[in-house]
Amino acid sequence: MKEPDAKDREILGILSKEARIPLKTLAGRIGLSRSATSERVAQLEKAGVIRGYRADIGQMGEGLVCAFLLVTLVRTPSLGILDELARYPDVRRVSSVSGQLDLVVEVEVPSIDRLNTLRDLIASHQGVDDLTTAIVLRRDIERMAG
């Protein structure tokens, strides 16, 4: 492949920040046709300049990582787990829900390491059957009560 030119670098700059941008939008931003943009992206992929597309999860505003812990209990109700969750200051909200899950636990932690530690503590509780973690990448709509 030829050395990346200014348009290629522009493509790379946009994709590094917005990996899931639609090709049509990318083409419009760099001022090329969709087919020319597609060809350039394909060449960059083939040459190994673009090695993949992924979510690069960093800190959420003010240095916090927000996540939902989706908990299935051994049996319900399980008041012991609610008492346990209330002890952790990183736990912001616990909701009992219907369906396959039993609890949705919203947490805000200072780091991924702290999230892993908290997750392990909760998962090891005798009343917890299964726990899945969903990290909040961004909040698209947020309304305050009132």
From TrEMBL:
Taxonomic superkingdom: Bacteria
Swiss-Prot/TrEMBL keywords: DNA-binding, Transcription, Transcription regulation
PROSITE patterns: HTH_ASNC_2 (PS50956)
UniProt GO molecular function: sequence-specific DNA binding
Stored Pfam families: AsnC_trans_reg (PF01037), HTH_24 (PF13412)
Protein name (record): AsnC family transcriptional regulator
GO cellular component, one term: cytosol
GO process terms (BP): response to amino acid
Ranges of residues in domain HTH asnC-type: 4-65
